Amino acid sequence: MEFGRFFLPGPTEVRPEVLQAMVRPVIGHRGEDMERLLSGMDPALRRLFRTERPVYVSTSSATGFMEAAITNLSRRRILCLVGGAFGARFRNIADRCGRPADTLAVEWGTAHSPELLSRALDSSPGTYDLVTVVHSETSTGVLNPVADLAAVVRDRDDLLLAVDGVTSVGGTPAEFDGWELDFLLTGSQKALALPPGLALAAASERALRRAEEIPARSYYFDLLEFERRAREFQTTNTPAVNLFYALAEQLGRIAEEGLEERWRRHRELAERTWAWVGELTERTGHDFSVLAPEGYRSPTVTAISLPAGLSGPDVVAAARKVGFTLASGYGKLKPTTIRIGHMGDHTMPELEAVLSVLDDVIDDRIGGLP
Ligand SMILES: *Cc1c(COP(=O)(O)O)cnc(C)c1O
Q1: Looking at CB atoms within 10 Å, which of 46, 197, 329, 331 has the fewest?
Q2: Which of 257, 283, 314 is the last residue of a domain?
Q3: Model confidence over 156-200: pLDDT tens digits?
Q4: Which of 164, 183, 185 to probe ligand 1 with, by most ligand atoms within 8 A of CB?
Q5: Considering 209, 237, 257, which residue would you say is the last residue of a domain?
Q6: How much distance in Å is there from the Cα of 110 to the middle of ligand 1?
Q7: Domain containing residue 302: CATH number
Q8: What is residue 258's three-state secondary structure?
Q9: Per the domain annotation, does 11 fall within a domain?
């Protein structure tokens, strides 16, 4: 298949060179070859997370490290910020792992406000020891103001912040040290444009001290074990080593492009998508809109609300027929929205191609609208 036709907001399209890098012999993970592979990636991983802390790589999907945040970082009560499906996932994990939690909800498609968080924390001082938030909420296309939310958390004693950066890290600024985060995680198959199967995360010294207080913090997802192993350029258990080859290759490609340049490319793809939504509305006289409000839009994924009479799954199926893959809305937004994942290694010509296909698909249906 030709590259540039796969626009799911995860998994994302993987460049052939990156796939090809996986076709190398399996090596023993306690040997020197593995140590060399991990120590070679270490500086690039720290640059990616904008941190001086080590970056852990787990053979699991990103949800594994979401679970690690829940089981390693709270010994009292968790406040989960929820404005979409992935925010809700943190809360569900807490429930299933038996960790007391409350939800601070905003409407799907809106962002969390530092003021609201501040008020929630002040109205029950000392109740919470962990706040969870999703940076780029992939179900709605909202980019949450994590720097400001982190400042609210840093103002309080004994409170940690865990951030799901699955569709932000590598696609938009996510500053682990600069924003003083305690835990930041991502997965291989989103903005990093790698095959699925790896999760990456950084943890603060504060977070590790907290984990030390929690005896039942999980075996596979024990952050202290990740820290200990990372310091020796080792993995906790048998890693999916061929995926690590792909990661090493992609880190090289990201360095070649430049991380900031990569952020800029994502920003341009997003801005083009938002502008296209405006043009579509003007041209058709029907109301298409970007779900996320201006100022809080993710550079990696856009959810587009369709006018009455157009169905998300129908538009997605029609695009599929001519060879382009995008996503309908997530969960309760499924019937009324579509989502374009303009993240990873996509470029402007590829985006223009999918938008032009959508123009045709929508024009075909517009006559029948009320
Ligand atoms: C995709 C996604 C996840 C889940 O990742 P898995 O790798 O499927 O576990 C979590 N959070 C966000 C924001 C996502 O986009």
Answers
A1: 331
A2: 257
A3: 999 999 999 999 999 999 999 999 999 999 999 999 999 999 999
A4: 164
A5: 257
A6: 19
A7: 3.90.1150.10
A8: coil
A9: no
Both 198 and 274 in one domain: the answer is no
**Six-digit token pair at 275?**
């502008």
User: 204 with 277, same domain?
Assistant: no
Evaluate: CB of 167 within 6 angstroms of ligand 1.
yes
- Average pLDDT estimate for 129-151: 98
The ligand 1 atom nearest the CA atom of 137: 13
Strand partners, 81: 104
Q: In the chain, how many domains are there?
A: 2
Domain that holds residue 50: 17-257
Q: What is the pLDDT of residues 314-336, one digit of tens each?
A: 999 999 999 999 999 998 899 99
Encoding tokens for residue 17?
Answer: 């060179």
Q: Which tokens in the block code for residue 175? A: 């500053």
E runs forming strands in the chain:
56-59, 78-82, 101-105, 130-134, 136-137, 142-143, 160-164, 183-187, 198-203, 289-290, 301-305, 327-328, 337-341
